[in-house]
Known about the structure:
3-stranded antiparallel β-sheet; 1 helix; Immunoglobulin-like
Amino acid sequence: MRSKGLIGVFGLLVILLLVLGVAYAHWSDSISINGTVETGTMSMGFTGEYTCVEEEPKDKEVAGFTVEFTGSYTDPKTGKSGYTKMTITITNAYPCYKLTCTCKVSNTGTIPIDVLDPVITAPDEVDVSVWYEDLEGNVLSTPFQADTCSSWILKVVVHVTQYAGENASYTFEVTLPYEQWG
Length: 182
């Protein structure tokens, strides 16, 4: 009888372990989530399209200028190209010489950007004014949002003041900061 009792206990133990195993397997299952995140690109640059107009009296047409674009890049996602630097060189200038340059700027990245106030570094002998316009000629207040692949105009006005020295060279820089839209 004892062996029957042990077999019964052993059988009960096996059934109990089976029930516990099923319950454990039932409550210990899991699912998983896999994902991929690809971020966009943020880039802005000069397109290389520009026009410049000198305001010189007819009898003083002696000054000259050159415009050069450097820092060529291509956005890896959009394939659009641009330049990170525009250099305006004015030669043989004199007090009251004025040059106005208009240049096209584009958001060449894949995400919208906020275009901030231009930062101007110039000596006192040269007045530099800068502002943005949309393609229709309306002045844009900064900061403004520039959507992907959109373009706008940058106006740069350079005026040589009365304090400019003879045989002098003056350098100025305009930085166009921008940040991720948000």
